[in-house]
Amino acid sequence: MLEIERVARLKHRYLVRDDAGHSGTWERHGLREQMSGDLGGEPYELVRDGRRHFRLEQSEAELARADAARLGRWTISTADATYELGRRKRWGSEMELRRVGQPVGTVRRAHHRTVVCDLPADLAPPAQAFIGFLVLTLWDREADSSAAGAAGAVAASGI
Question: What total of structural domains would you count in the chain?
Fold first, then answer.
């Protein structure tokens, strides 16, 4: 199991740790959906490639890729396998990772600042962190969209 904890209130800075003892810190670059950090002393980057594609890179080599599919689902590709990521329940925030149609793991909020990635052990820790940060990015997009909708409703009502 891997945990991602937001450690800075005003900055997007995160502590990543797993049960095997791998740990590191990650930071989002400004308001962009790109991050860099380390895990187990190795540097990694989460790179946004358009609005519907993300990559996990190390020394500019792609380790994993996420591509938006349909109906809010994402295809996650690593060197060893391909997964599908989507909501576990229609109205919940918990995300489920599937392989060949079968659930193999979940990503959920444990507390306000902590995300728990209960993903397969054969998935490398950097790939698990990549999936966790992808889910955080998707949750942030939803929150921004909801806030914009609420602000628009208030503006339209003249309050």
Answer: 1
